[in-house]
From TrEMBL:
Domain GIY-YIG: 47-137
Transmembrane stretches, start-end: none
SUPFAM superfamilies, alphabetized: GIY-YIG endonuclease
Organism this protein belongs to: Ooceraea biroi
PANTHER family: REVERSE TRANSCRIPTASE, REVERSE TRANSCRIPTASE DOMAIN-CONTAINING PROTEIN
Gene3D superfamilies the UniProt entry points to: GIY-YIG endonuclease (3.40.1440.10)
Protein's name in the database: GIY-YIG domain-containing protein
C-alpha cells in the first residue's frame, strides 16, 4: 500500500505494472484525522437516564432516585416540592421540613447510567438497599427480592 498523491501515484503505478506489481492506495490524511468529532462533555445536571444520589448537608441521610429526563429538571422538582401541601410532600421535602435540614443540590452524584427503564429501576432499588442512610420509602424497593438484602448490605 502506498499513499495516493495525485499525479505521482499514477506514474508510479504505470511503472510498477510493467513488472506485474499492482498498487493499492491509501489516503495519507483522512478527514477524520484532521477534523475531530466529539460530543461535548455534559455537566451532571444535563445527563439523562440516570440513577442519582442527593446527600443531606446536615446529616448522613441521602435520597436515591432515577430519572429519564435531564437530572436538572428532576432536581428542580425536588427543590420546589417543599411548597406543596403537607399531605403531598416527598420524602426529601419531609426530611427538609421535619429536621430543618438542606440537601446538597450542587453536588448530586450520578450512581448509574441506564437507558432501559426497567433496568434503571432495578439499579435504583439496588442502590437504595445498599445505602443504610437512605430516606427512600421501603415501597421503593418492594420489587427487589428479599434474597438480595443480605448481599447488598454486606457490600
Amino acid at each position: 500500500m502506498i499513499p495516493y498523491v495525485k499525479g505521482l501515484s499514477d506514474d508510479l503505478a504505470r511503472i510498477l505494472k510493467r513488472v506485474n506489481v499492482h498498487c493499492v492506495y491509501t489516503v495519507p490524511k483522512k478527514l477524520d484525522t484532521v477534523i475531530k468529532l466529539g460530543k461535548d462533555i455534559l455537566t451532571n445536571n444535563q445527563h439523562t437516564d440516570v440513577v442519582y444520589k442527593i446527600d443531606c448537608l446536615n446529616c448522613a441521610a441521602c435520597y436515591i432516585g432515577q430519572t429519564k429526563r435531564h437530572l436538572e429538571t428532576r432536581v428542580k422538582e425536588h427543590k420546589s416540592d417543599i411548597s406543596k401541601h403537607v399531605s403531598c410532600l416527598s420524602v426529601v421535602s419531609k426530611h427538609r421540613i421535619d429536621n430543618n435540614h438542606e440537601f446538597d443540590w450542587q453536588n448530586i452524584k450520578i450512581l448509574h447510567h441506564e437507558c432501559h427503564r426497567r433496568k434503571r429501576e432495578i439499579a435504583e432499588m439496588f442502590y437504595i438497599k445498599r445505602h443504610v442512610d437512605s430516606i427512600n420509602l421501603q415501597k421503593d424497593t418492594d420489587n427487589l427480592p428479599a434474597i438480595y438484602d443480605t448481599i447488598l448490605k454486606n457490600k
